[in-house]
Amino acid sequence: MRFSEFCASSGDEVAEALANALTLGSGRLAYAARLVTDDGEAGGVVRSLDRANEALLQALQLLGDQAANAVPAPDLTDTPVPPIRRWEEFLASRTTATEATAFRTALIDALERARYAGTALLEDGDIETIALQVAAAVTALREARRIVI
After folding, report:
1. At what angle do helices 12-37 and 97-122 cross, to 10 degrees?
2. Would you call 78 exposed, middle or buried from its count of C-beta atoms within 10 A (0-12, 13-18, 19+)?
């Protein structure tokens, strides 16, 4: 089923909410990646990852039956925010160099998959493919969070 067919069967309100959830999820992941790259505040990274998780889980929920084959990650929201400190200091206090690299890889994977899902939506892509990409983004986000929290 194409996104346009999904819209016709689910209604414009659901389609708009899905587009908004994907946009918000991708945007929050991109913001988290920028904070990581710029050695921003650790709490900002954690909050951005939480909000991205919420948005992507909402997108999976809106996809409904189309996401039935996807394996959604557990809800990771409401993570305790670390005390105010720079990201690199926070990361070094919790991980090895190998784990830090794995975190960055998982974050990039989550971001790329969320962006791919959003692009596919805009290009009237296959809704099952969109659902699988969103689920993969959530799974990658779960892995990133597991490493540092």
Report:
1. 150
2. exposed
Could you give the C-alpha distances from 39 to 42, 91, 99, in angstroms and in order? Answer: 8, 10, 17
Q: What's the residue count for the chain?
A: 149
Say how far apart CA 103 and CA 94 lie, in whole Å: 11
Residue 64: pLDDT band (50, 70, 90) is confident
- Quote the CA–CA distance of 135 and 67 in Å, as a whole number: 8
DSSP tag of 38: T
Residue 39 is given by DSSP the state: T
- What whole-number distance in Å separates Cα of residue 20 and Cα of residue 5? 18
The chain-wide mean pLDDT, for the chain, equals 88
Domains of the chain: 3-73+86-148 (1.20.120)
Eight-state DSSP code of residue 81: P
* Cβ(105)–Cβ(67) below 8 Å: no
Closest to 69 in 3D by CA, of 1, 137, 133:
133
pLDDT digits 0-9 by tens, 3-21? 999 989 988 899 999 999 9
